[in-house]
Write a structure and sequence with these properties.
One of its GO terms (molecular function) is carbon-nitrogen ligase activity, with glutamine as amido-N-donor. This is Transamidase GatB domain protein. Pfam families: YqeY. The protein is mostly helical. The chain has two domains: 86 residues, Hypothetical Protein Yqey, Chain: A, domain1; 51 residues, Arc Repressor Mutant, subunit A (Orthogonal Bundle). Helices cover 77% and strands 0% of the residues. The protein has seven helices and no strands. Helix 2 packs across helix 4 and helix 6 runs antiparallel to helix 7.
Length: 149
């Protein structure tokens, strides 16, 4: 079973080649290389959720790089990372709003019956599949901590 998202990324790579859009092509090849690496490592085709996990990881790497480049005063490198980030985010589902995140957290806490920090893992286990690729899991983790403490 081939992931539809992976096919879309491959088609976009071909379009970028035809349009001679070097920056977009480079970023899309980077995405496909990450997917291919995962397939080689696991010796099986990456699922739709697997592609989202990879994209989420790439977004996190770009955000970290942007922060480090800005801290070092390297706006030239930071702008390259920001351009890549925008292209990668095109393939992620629409982000969750603050209200949706809060509702998701409240439902997960209620569903798991969590009452303290020891049960945070249960809550994260319920939320992660619903929010993966749609919200910053670090931010969600912080919100769960504040609600459980």
């Amino acid at each position: 079973m081939t992931a539809a998202l992976k096919n879309r990324i491959t088609d976009d790579m071909k379009s970028a080649m035809r349009a001679k859009d070097k920056n977009r092509l480079q970023t899309i090849r980077l995405i496909l290389a990450a997917i291919k690496q995962q397939e080689v490592d696991t010796r099986e085709e990456v699922s739709e959720d697997g592609v989202l996990l990879i994209l989420d990881k790439l977004v996190k790497q770009r955000r970290d790089s942007i922060k480090q480049f800005n801290d070092a005063g390297r706006e030239d490198l930071s702008s390259i990372e920001e351009a890549e980030l925008l292209i990668i985010q095109e393939y992620l589902p629409t982000p969750l709003t603050e209200d949706e995140i809060t509702t998701l957290i409240d439902e997960a806490i209620q569903q798991s019956g969590a009452s303290g920090m020891k049960e945070m893992g249960k809550v994260m286990g319920i939320i992660k599949p619903k929010a993966q690729g749609r919200a910053d899991m670090g931010k969600i983790s912080g919100l769960i901590k504040s609600k459980l403490s």
